């Protein structure tokens, strides 16, 4: 008797599902409710049915009959369909293994089940096609070259630039430290500020490899930003050709705002990377009708949801573009329906544990939106807000703690070239590539317009690559128009354009480390963030048993800006909220104490020195030479 592979796959899958479900059942706390008995029963039923199909050829034929039609429609083998069938159950099992707390109920099963669900749908639907790497050798070399250029522009002295180590970065670092300490291990639940937990495993890994330093915290973002540069070249090359791709990648490599967010230990720049990856994969998959690219697009679209909140736009942007192009090319849509279905399944499998968490705790999904929603504080109409979103790209100056440069997001001449590119794309709206890029940009008009403090630069990071592509497209079209009227000057014009773009890229990069950094230092010289950064760096030099007695109320507390805790994790801080001598103030017992006084608590210094004589008083001054804070070091 010939035994079929699907039977063995279902037997192995049923056994593994049963064992994994039993493990989760044993790990669940007594107050947790999960249908593990149902999972165990389903696993046993599948295993038993598969066993009978192995023993009895008639049952095996019935089994294969039900698999044959969906396998044929999807264009996969019956073995492949068997693997795909298990991807969703293991993704669901991940949710129950993870739970909704910061510690997973069953971390080993949670991680293995989730990764296995992704592997199953990829391996089950993957088409083994030959990849001719040598035929794309030059493109790969240029791509690697742009990655290296991106790294070169972003790797310079990461502990010193940006000049301010924000509390948000500190918070991300603290979550990474909690992961390494075993205090947090759930990537499918919310972490700091209601952001998904998966991202924080990246800085945790970097801290584990490179040590507890600010450089280690920022290295992943440097890599993500550099990858965005190189992949923007690939995206531009696929959509608009080599010239546009080269110009866009050069501009992005040196664009000062992208460099800035590529040097922050936060997830914003990762959204920019995922936008380029997802849109690039979807575009190429549709154009070349490649099953594997659709699968990778689905996985990438799902993974993107575990990073910064602007990635949620992709869940609208990608289906909207596919709907638009499908209406104009119905025959291709019909041909690609199985591939689109598999892309959707891959997205669902990846995102389902997080989506289930959000369904259980909707406040965690909505919290980032409510925090920044303009409707909480503005009485402007929708039209007025959208007009602000339009202006935020080229007109409104940026004055925020994120990047206080006093200039628009896109300044001259990039602003004019960007508007020209958008105009050319609008005139060519029948082209699918232009529709995709325009939807990408328009989405962030809504994001910017309906966020508070327009322009909120941190929410524009994911559209920077689209802006550079629009600039490059505008330049390319202008060269094409010039070629129609004065073809003899086009070769010289191309050289001038390339040299100009190289100059603008270098100029932006140099100005980031000079002018923009200088402006930031002036703007934030006496901010609470600078107090926290300077104090944290000083406390790194103190013994681990040091206690900090902090006089900052009501302006700030010792723990109000987490950059202090990241820089000096072993130092304990005590906030003084009452006048010196009050019994309601916390007690301290260390033999090495650092008393820190913000300027408005200067009058408390003599009282402390009287009670703790023999110490040494110092002062930390700001860039403006004003007192940032005093600190009094006392040792027994």
Explain what the structure shows:
The protein is mainly alpha-helical and 636 residues long. It has three domains: 5-125, no CATH class; 134-523, no CATH class; 528-635. 64% of the residues lie in helices and 5% in strands. The protein contains 24 helices and five strands. The protein has helices at 5-27, 36-55, 57-74, 78-98, 107-125, 137-154, 167-180, 201-210, 214-240, 242-254, 256-261, 268-288, 291-304, 314-328, 330-360, 362-372, 382-394, 414-427, 432-449, 464-485, 490-523, 528-539, 563-567, 605-611; strands spanning 547-551, 572-575, 592-597, 616-621, 627-635. It has a five-stranded mixed sheet with strand order 2-1-3-5-4, sandwiched between helices. The longest helix is centred in the C-terminal third of the chain and has 34 residues, at 490-523. The protein is flat. The termini are far apart. The model has no long low-confidence stretch (mean pLDDT 92).
Describe the structure concisely:
By secondary structure, the chain is mostly helical.
Shape: flat
- The span between the termini is 87 Å
Please give the count of helices.
24
Q: Give the number of DSSP strands.
A: 5
User: Helical proportion?
Assistant: 55-70%
Largest sheet: 5 strands, mixed
Low-confidence segments, given as residue ranges, are none
């Amino acid at each position: 008797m010939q035994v079929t592979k699907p039977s063995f796959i279902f037997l192995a899958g049923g056994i593994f599902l049963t064992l994994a479900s039993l493990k989760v059942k044993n790990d669940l706390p007594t107050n947790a409710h999960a249908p593990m008995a149902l999972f165990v029963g389903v696993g046993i039923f599948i295993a038993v049915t598969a066993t009978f199909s192995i023993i009895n050829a008639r049952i095996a034929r019935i089994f294969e009959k039900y698999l044959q039609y969906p396998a044929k429609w999807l264009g996969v083998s019956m073995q492949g369909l068997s693997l795909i069938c298990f991807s969703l159950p293991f993704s669901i099992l991940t949710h129950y293994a993870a739970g909704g707390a910061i510690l997973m109920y069953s971390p080993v099963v949670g991680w293995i089940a989730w990764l296995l669900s992704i592997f199953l749908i990829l391996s089950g639907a993957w088409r083994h096609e030959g990849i001719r790497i040598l035929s794309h050798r030059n493109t790969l070399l240029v791509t690697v070259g742009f990655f290296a250029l991106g790294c070169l522009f972003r790797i310079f002295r990461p502990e010193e630039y940006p000049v301010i180590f924000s509390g948000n970065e500190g918070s991300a670092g603290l979550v990474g430290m909690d992961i390494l300490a075993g205090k947090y291990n759930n990537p499918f639940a919310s972490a700091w500020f209601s952001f998904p937990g998966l991202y924080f495993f990246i800085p945790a890994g970097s801290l584990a490899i490179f040590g507890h330093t600010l450089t280690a915290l920022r290295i992943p973002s440097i890599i993500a930003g550099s990858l965005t540069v190189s992949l923007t070249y690939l995206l531009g090359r696929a959509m608009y050709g080599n010239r546009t791709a080269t110009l866009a990648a050069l501009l992005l490599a040196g664009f000062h705002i992208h460099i800035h967010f590529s040097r922050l230990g936060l997830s914003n720049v990762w959204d920019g990377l995922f936008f380029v990856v997802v849109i690039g994969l979807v575009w190429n998959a549709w154009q070349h009708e490649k099953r594997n690219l659709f699968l990778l697009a689905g996985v990438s679209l799902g993974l993107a949801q575990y990073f910064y909140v602007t990635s949620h736009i992709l869940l609208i942007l990608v289906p909207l573009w596919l709907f638009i192009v499908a209406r104009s090319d119905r025959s291709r849509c019909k041909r690609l329906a199985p591939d689109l279905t598999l892309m959707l399944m891959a997205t669902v499998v990846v995102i389902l544990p997080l989506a289930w968490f959000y369904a259980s705790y909707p406040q965690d999904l909505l919290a980032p939106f409510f925090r920044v929603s303009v409707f909480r504080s503005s009485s402007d109409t929708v039209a007025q807000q959208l007009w602000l979103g339009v202006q935020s790209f080229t007109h409104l100056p940026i004055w925020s703690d994120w990047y206080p440069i006093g200039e628009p997001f896109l300044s001259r001449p990039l602003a004019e070239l960007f508007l020209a590119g958008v105009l050319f794309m609008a005139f060519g709206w029948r082209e699918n590539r232009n529709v995709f890029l325009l939807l990408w940009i328009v989405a962030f008009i809504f994001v910017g317009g309906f966020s508070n403090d327009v322009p909120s630069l941190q929410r524009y990071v994911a559209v920077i690559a689209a802006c550079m592509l629009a600039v490059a497209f505008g330049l390319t079209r202008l060269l094409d128009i010039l070629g129609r009227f004065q073809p003899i000057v086009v070769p010289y014009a191309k050289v001038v354009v390339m040299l100009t773009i190289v100059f603008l890229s270098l100029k932006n990069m140099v100005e980031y480390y000079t002018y923009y950094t200088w402006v930031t230092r002036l703007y934030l010289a006496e901010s609470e963030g600078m107090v926290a950064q300077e104090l944290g760096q000083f406390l790194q030099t103190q013994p681990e048993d040091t206690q900090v007695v902090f006089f900052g109320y009501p302006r700030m507390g010792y723990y109000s800006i987490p950059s202090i805790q990241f820089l000096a994790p072993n130092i304990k801080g005590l906030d003084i909220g009452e006048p010196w001598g009050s019994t309601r103030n916390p007690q301290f017992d260390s033999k090495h104490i650092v008393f820190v006084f913000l300027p408005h608590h200067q009058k408390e210094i003599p009282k402390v020195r009287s009670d703790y004589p023999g110490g040494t008083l110092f002062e930390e001054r700001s860039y403006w030479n004003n007192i940032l804070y005093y600190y009094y070091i006392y040792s027994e």
